[in-house]
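Need tokens for this chain, all 374 residues.
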Amino acid sequence: MANYDERYAFIAEWYDPNAALVRRYQLLFYPKDQTLEMYDIKNRRVFLKRSKYESIASKDLYIGSIVNVHSRQLSLVEYGDQYTKNKLATVHSKTLAIIKPDAFARMGEIINIIQSEEFVICQAKMVQLSRREAMEFYAEHEGKPFFEGLVDFMTSGPAVAMELMAHDAIKKWRSLLGPTNTLKAREEAPGSIRAIFGSDGTRNACHGSDSGASAERESNFFFEFKKGRNTAIFGDTTLCIIKPHAIKEQLAGKIITTIMNSEFKITALKMCHLEKANAEEFLEIYKGVVGEYSEMVSELCSGSCIVMEISYPDQPQEFREFVGPADPEIARHLRPRTLRARFGMDKIKNAIHCTDLPDDGPLEVEYFFKILDS
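Here are the structure tokens for all 374 residues:
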């Protein structure tokens, strides 16, 4: 196929809420001019004529991703042809990364490095492993001298599991990590994550899968087998959402670092991609009250967001004040140190959603970490 007319093909699924059916389409994307077209597979007809769609780029198209096309959220479930699979399978390969308990407090800095190295974070979840779970995850090391110490360490505090995507992701992530032993990492790769954030051979900041089979197994362990499990405490907490535009602009790590350097505590975290119906339901309180309601809904379901439960039991300062006014321009004039002043663009793309009323905090946390998880 000539490069000027290069085309990527995917099988996409869309849940039609009116018919309560999952509809399947062939989605074709032309990277040269960022156009796409769609065919209804069941009815064998054109669903969308080839047209410009600048909000979607090649990096957004991979198996498991969700893209928005004219208000429809499409899940890409299969490659549409062998050419696309051959072309993108390596480019869009995945690995499993874990920010270990010893580096949890540096989570924002590590996420910032991950994004700056052009990894896409496909999934993320804060976890607290039980002893049984840690033994299961590291079963291949059972019987080795360091096994018991490793299990004790991995259950000593919260960790963050992430599915990362990049070209040759496994090799790239392990190279960024550096040698397993931190002391060796500082000698051989002083700029690596383990050299910067690790302490020794066990407390070495992060984990990375060593093969494709391990990456699939380890990713399933956290995001399929343990689906719905989270660390939310549902009390004296409020909700914080890093909006999709801030994720795309690689601001997530900086925002998390700012929060963790304050007196607030992150007690639960997950990455999610909201359906439009869920975004409308969640933001319903603003309907008819805020003129930008429709734009707020569109932004919240326009891509992946990071949802966090924020705890402040001993903190007199409200998290809402820490986030700042809804309009970043006003925030920059009146309260320049707030999150929206530092990271927001406008009233819609203002980086952060946070609970407005203290009494609504537990309800919003429950919506994301209990209702949607169920």
